[in-house]
Amino acid sequence: MGLITVATNVVAVHPSVPVSNMKEFIAYAKQNAGKLKALAVTGKKRHAGMPQVPTMAEAGYPNFDLESWVALYAPAGTPASTVNQLADAVKRGLDLPESKQRADAAGIEVRFVAPPEMTKLLDRDIPDWTQTIKSANIKLD
Fold first, then answer.
1. What is the pLDDT of residues 48-75, one digit of tens each?
2. By the 8 A CB rule, do 15 and 37 touch?
3. What torsion do the CA atoms of 27, 105, 118, 2 make, to the nearest 10 degrees?
């Protein structure tokens, strides 16, 4: 379900939990001021496009941390020098003005995370999401 569909359902009092492109949401929220109110953003800091909207922590949920991310993986056993070369190339690409402009145009916050920090993130997130999936009895079809 796309964000515009979700936002339209919210305006029509058929609420959902949207997770989508912030640029689209910001534009739609502005068009529907008075009918649609952003309650909180799920990241650790406020979104630059909606600085008046608090984070979930600021809204009273200090342990709520839900950010989407994308990672580049290499096969187990890949030499550290190769992993570091790939990471450096990705970082250089993300730092290009064109990359930043495209991300900004899409309403996306891009943040480079080095391999050791990504490992820590996975070590934290995988058990949390495993527990969430089990407790909600979610099954793959």
1. 888 999 999 999 998 887 888 888 889 9
2. no
3. 40
